[in-house]
Design a protein that fits this description.
The chain has four helices and ten strands, in the order αβαβββββββββαα. By secondary structure, it is of the alpha+beta class. It has a single domain, classed as Lipocalin, CATH 2.40.128.640. It starts with a helix and ends with a helix.
Length: 156
């Protein structure tokens, strides 16, 4: 009887991606998250959408605690960075550098929690790209607008 129950539980875990959560290492997180648009909801009701770029910068919209105005958020290059085997945030004015446990929930979502504070988390779900929002790093996008490409110069 116990063996049968164990087999049923193992089968459910294997069949259900939401139940079979996987901790992401730095490389897995980079491939899964960088440059993609995610909507998020957090433990305190905060919500929004944003994109993390490969240079560690972030562009997002954020509504704190689920009410009030939605604010635009831009964090510069180097804000998110690798420290050991995890991603951490370098935020001005903070006495410490918070690091994050990232757990893949399924093929479109993950949970990010502050290391050591498992209750402080946000759930992120991948969204389709929005018109006018590039998947390229915004710093390289600005450079592309500032200087015409070599191909465009040759065409003239």
């Amino acid at each position: 009887m116990m063996m049968r129950l164990a087999m049923v539980i193992a089968a459910l875990l294997a069949a259900s991606p939401a139940l079979a959560q996987t901790a992401m290492n730095v490389e897995t997180a980079r491939r899964f998250v960088m440059g993609k648009l995610f909507a998020f909801t957090c433990f305190d009701g905060s919500r929004g959408a944003g994109r993390i770029y490969s240079d560690g910068s972030v562009i997002a919209s954020l509504q704190l605690q689920g009410s009030g105005p939605t604010r635009a958020l831009w964090l510069p290059a180097g804000t998110l960075r690798v420290r050991g085997e995890t991603y951490c945030a370098n935020l001005k004015g903070m006495m410490f550098e918070p690091c994050f446990n990232l757990v893949r929930l399924d093929d479109r979502s993950f949970r990010g929690a502050v290391s050591g504070l498992g209750f402080a988390y946000c759930d992120f779900t991948r969204r389709m790209a929005v018109a006018g929002v590039s998947t390229r790093s915004h710093s390289s996008a600005r450079a592309a607008h500032a200087a015409p490409s070599a191909a465009a110069n040759e065409a003239e």
